[in-house]
């Protein structure tokens, strides 16, 4: 059974590569976004991940915003994309992943070298321009994946894009659960685990629920990026049952 599921993933991956290479150049932005969303939904189905969207505040999601979420797994990108396709800011290491890195690049991912201020400045204005043009831009301010049950400090640099674009931050809290509502161990993608190891662990495990919690938008007018990062982290951590306060880093 695991071999069959793995084969389905590879076939789906090559369908995505073919679409990026031959269909994307011939279609408009709306067509690309629709195909990215459909591809992400099918990937979750193959991996037996069911999306559940919660909105405890009842607030409408901001139409134009900088989308922010905690980071658990490589699955996070596809969970969010299955709801609404976004341009993600991701660490440059992902570009080197076989096939997947190229797929992410062609689907609009913006790669950044973590810890390099010059690289942050290089892409910053592009983020502002994309947001102002109505594109959905999303990033994971922890800068790396964290084990479920904890939320790392948020890096504040890229929050400046929301300030300059004069849009709110739209936070989402994300966790992966088993059928009993407990945190699903197969979702963790930490330490020296490779993408291939994580994929196999997910395909071998019992089905999981990706719980995406939509939080109220956070206004940015007159707020410093550090304070914005702290406020956003507190909202996401609170939704996940974490209460420890942490200072934001650059």
TrEMBL record:
SMART domains (alphabetical): PlsC
Keywords for this protein: Acyltransferase, Lipid biosynthesis, Lipid metabolism, Transferase
Pathway where it operates: Lipid metabolism
CDD domains with a match to the protein in the record: LPLAT_AGPAT-like
Species classification: Bacteria, Pseudomonadati, Pseudomonadota, Betaproteobacteria, Burkholderiales
Molecular function via GO: acyltransferase activity
InterPro entries named in the record: Plipid/glycerol_acylTrfase
UniProt name for this protein: Lysophospholipid acyltransferase family protein
Organism listed in the record: Paraherbaspirillum soli
PANTHER family with a match to the protein in the record: 1-ACYL-SN-GLYCEROL-3-PHOSPHATE ACYLTRANSFERASE, 1-ACYL-SN-GLYCEROL-3-PHOSPHATE ACYLTRANSFERASE-RELATED
Annotated Phospholipid/glycerol acyltransferase domain residues: 65-177
